[in-house]
Amino acid sequence: MHIKKFLFCLGAIAVLLVSCDRDYNELGSDILGGENYQLGTRHDFNVTASTFATGAVQSNNLATNPLGVYTDPVFGKVTANFVTQVALATEAPTIGTDPEIDDVILKIPYTSTATGETDSDGNNAYTINSLYTRGTGKFNLEIYRNGYFLRDNEVDGSNEITSQYYYTDQNQDIDNVKVGSKLNDLETTDHEENTAFFFNPKEIVTNEYADDGVTVTNTTREAPAMIIHLNKEYFAEAILNTNSANLASNNAFKEYFRGLYFKATGNNDDEALNLLNFTAGTITISYTAGETEDTRTDRTITLNLTGTTISLQERQNAFAVPQGRLAVLGGPGYTSQIDILNPSDLEMMRNEKWMINEASLSFYVDESITGMQHADHTNPQRIYLYDMNHKQAVLDYLYDNTTLSDASLNKYVYGGIYLKDSLSPTVIRHKYKIRLTNYLRSLISDDSTNVRLGLAVSQSIANSTMNRRKSGAPDFSEGSDFIPQASVISPLGTVLYGADATDETTRLKLTVYYTIPNP
Fold this sequence. Notes:
This protein has 519 residues and is mainly β. It has 2 domains: 8-57 and 319-515, no CATH class; 76-314, no CATH class. It is 13% helix and 38% strand. The protein contains 9 helices and 33 strands. The strands form 9 sheets. Strands 4, 5, 10, 11, 17, 18 and 21 form a 7-stranded antiparallel sheet that branches. Strands 1-27-28-24-33-2 form a 6-stranded mixed sheet. A hairpin with a 7-residue loop joins strand 19 and strand 20.
């Protein structure tokens, strides 16, 4: 398993979090040390919570997209395919006379981190971020020309132009109209560009040679990337020898060449899944052109992997959520919903003029579930609590501008980070703690409306965009019709103790520390 697991010391984080609570500090000496106030009173409120399956979810134009196959011992197998439009880097390129193609290279950089180590040849070592593997990590990757026209907009029943939405369950639509044979058909002894593809973490080293073909004149080093040779005869015909009208503009080109379709299939127990920024990808067509040998020149045409995209995800062996538990799972997976504070509790807090020092929900991971402690299972690093009614972030998320050198841990006061917690000197558990301090303050002082809260996996805490669930999905109702986009991207999930858990120490509840005026 190639992923970092960030486990924080809860005590150290607690000190940091209190120091960074802006609103609490702003109260200053008006409360701290004041003679008219009681400090640090704790009250636990019961909550209600349940989990629903999201069904198919909107997955066009995501910031990053999963590609590959992976079987989680808890949640089963996910297959992630991908389709993207392709655009000319330069419209209406001048091909030249009598073009002869040399090669066609697809390149998509991986998100990786240098380890600081080098081998005996001076090559830098890297780890690929957000990579999940089983066995050898090799799987069958097929790349096809896409035949499905991807639109930006559509006309609805009222003849209004609206955005076109695509969903995770549309793989068959794409697969049914793929064009011809696979394009990554280069036969090599290890088949690493097709039937035994793997996400290679090696640094890419390119040498330039003198005329003698031996002396190295320059060396270029690049971070790891997907490098695949595409069928050059196909691209010679499709690009170099096509009617110039097809290359006149990107609108014309996207109608003519409808993009690439990436299809993944597992090889028994060998699997891998990676999150990729496909928009950084390119196809470089290298060729020569000229009327005579003396006038022939080296030329390139670059195609960018930009435009409309769809993440195509399918899950098998659906997980049955046990009684008293909650589940969150990315992609077409699971989201949970939580209701806090009944009207009488909220009225009591308002009447007694509670001053909220801290309010939080702690979600303990149920590690007794089969597979949860297996080496092939990874708990998500972040979960995200949001306002389901208004399909937006809660105040505590919006107010939190805290940052760390690792951007994935930003907004750490708001929280939702995978933490280690010592329930006793001998019992270590893991949990996610999310603060609702500002949300609760607004309910009391501003008479705001108490809303239903949603809980989901977050692949990127900076991303609070909401995506649609497909109409007709199970448990489809107002408030649940959108889920966080950061959850659609993630392949990960976890099982949490719910509000009905029998063990009080791990049961989900709203914990409030408050101050009230003395009579």
